[in-house]
Design brief:
Elements lengths: L18 H13 L4 H8 L2 H20 L4 H17 L1 H4 L6 H21 L13 H30 L5 E6 L3 H12 L5 E7 L14 E3 L4 H7 L4 E4 L6 H9 L7 E4 L14 E4 L2 E5 L9 H35 L4 E7 L5 E7 L23 H9 L6 H6 L4 E3 L6 H10 L12 E3 L13 H13 L3 H16 L5
Parallel strand pairs: 1-2, 1-4, 2-3, 4-5, 10-11
Antiparallel strand pairs: 5-7, 6-7, 8-9
């Protein structure tokens, strides 16, 4: 069996024409698209800086005006800055409104004030009766923050109207809607977008009539984003089929840009619970950022480490007992190691308990072990209970895997499935998981690959930390119910 050292980075599996191949080639270039002062200026987003500055001042003023302690002011300030940093990608909007921010600021202020007071760091003085203290402080915070943001947004709009702080944008589609939105960007720079060009399957008959130059084909979008230092992609109606366009946009996931889409039937309005914005009255729907670009993705990794370390410490006697039983049933070599494909097509060495008697090295690998006659009673029990996968927690600790994610497969099968099943390669955008959305729906073993791909990509597009917790809870229920295979 071929083995790969888990200590040494290996060449990732590149699926021809896939988003994995494209982003893998461009990630380094895009991260180096500026140097020195230029890079620092690009990292300093003025909207984020203004919001943090205003919210920080509002937090301190609110606590001090309510007579709170210095420790309470520091705690309130720290919590406010932390939330702003986590949500910093949401601060860069095309038409920001302080009044639109008010409900979220109110919820934030009440929660922070209540929690801070509960842990013994009062944010209000003794002159304010009992439970009314946190509410008074939260109210002061909201009022100051809303007024401050209104002024700050006004200053930003004035600067953007003068061409400062603008972001470069490429428009996908050269039809009437794409042309109109590019003209709106150029005529109303207060929205902060500057059109640098168009991409389309084929250029229009009169490209000179476009308000910005043609940059190239839509399929070249990831490369053009890097070469033209594009900050925003605006997708209007174009000649490419939606299914193909999804793959192109996913190839931009790792690039430092935001994606806005002109929604179909936009004239009828869009649900305002969505991230709806507008450029001079023309609606745009901002697509959600890829999960690995969210601040909470770091929390996922910390949760993985904490959970895996805790479980390994608690069940170490069980792991030892299972190893001894397998040694008795199968002989030496109770751990099974196999090369699998993980994040971005990189290879790693997966570790689990061996449940089958060894077979000759030249025996072809099989897709499923269902019906194997090399499995003893101990191995069968481990399979049904899924306890054979406990050693994978070590893979989680080392960063090869996550607790929750798409199931990793062998390189041969990954290459085969990527050719046969549309968007199989998109599963490689996040780390492989010990369990996952597909697994808890019994999509493991000899089951439909198309279904697995659909479930895995759904999980990635709708990822949240709470979703991970639910999947882990359902996995534990499956283990207790002996539903493994």
């Amino acid at each position: 069996m071929a083995q790969v050292s888990a200590e040494t980075p290996t060449q990732g599996l590149q699926v021809p024409g896939s988003a994995t191949e494209e982003t893998g080639r461009l990630n380094g270039a895009h991260s180096r698209r500026g140097t020195g002062k230029d890079t620092q200026l690009r990292r300093l987003d003025p909207h984020t800086a203004v919001v943090i500055l205003i919210d920080s001042a509002a937090a301190v003023c609110a606590v001090r005006s309510a007579g709170g302690s210095a420790a309470g002011a520091v705690a309130f300030l720290g919590a406010v800055i932390g939330v702003d940093l986590i949500e910093r990608h949401r601060t860069r909007r095309l038409s920001p409104s302080a009044l639109d921010d008010a409900p979220a600021l109110a919820a934030r202020g009440i929660i922070i004030a209540a929690v801070t007071t509960a842990v013994g760091l009062p944010v209000s003085g003794e002159g304010i009766p009992g439970s009314a203290g946190p509410l008074v402080t939260a109210t002061a915070y909201v009022v100051i923050a809303v007024v401050g943001r209104a002024v700050g947004y006004r200053v930003l709009r004035l600067n953007q109207a003068r061409g400062r702080f603008s972001r470069s944008a490429v428009v996908v589609g050269t039809g009437p809607v794409g042309t109109k939105i590019a003209r709106h960007m150029a005529d109303h720079p207060e929205h902060g977008l500057r059109p640098v060009g168009f991409v389309e399957v084929a250029p229009p008959a009169r490209p000179e009539r476009l308000p910005a130059p043609m940059l190239g084909d839509i399929t070249d979008l990831p490369r053009l984003v890097v070469e033209n230092r594009v900050d925003d992609i605006v997708v209007s109606f174009c000649q490419m089929r939606d299914a193909e366009l999804v793959d192109v946009l996913r190839a931009c996931d790792r690039l430092d840009c935001e994606v806005h889409v002109v929604p179909r039937l936009f004239e009828l309005g869009v649900d305002h619970s969505a991230a709806v914005e507008h450029v001079w009255g023309l609606q745009l729907l901002r697509l959600g950022r890829a999960p690995f670009r969210n601040g909470t993705w770091t929390v996922k990794r910390l949760f993985d480490i904490a959970f895996a370390a805790t479980v390994l410490a608690l069940v170490s006697p069980l792991i030892l007992a299972l190893a001894l039983l397998l040694r008795w049933e199968l002989g030496p070599g109770v751990l099974f190691r196999q090369v699998r494909i993980g994040l971005d097509g990189r290879r790693f060495l997966l570790v689990k308990f061996r449940t089958l008697k060894p077979q000759p090295d030249d025996t072809p690998a099989t897709w499923s072990v269902v019906g194997e006659d090399r499995m003893g009673p101990i191995g069968a029990f481990l399979r049904r209970s899924s306890l054979d996968e406990l050693p994978q927690l070590w893979n989680v600790m080392r960063g090869h895997m996550s607790l929750v994610g798409p199931r990793p497969e062998q390189p041969t099968y990954v290459a085969q499935f990527a050719r046969r099943h549309h968007r199989y390669h998109a599963r490689l955008r996040v780390p492989a998981g010990v369990t996952g959305w597909a697994q808890i729906h019994d999509l493991r073993g000899d089951t439909s690959i198309d279904d697995r791909v659909r479930f895995d990509n759904y999980y990635i597009e709708h990822w949240s930390l709470w979703q991970d917790i639910k999947i882990i809870a359902r996995t534990l229920a499956s283990v207790l119910g002996m539903r493994g295979g």
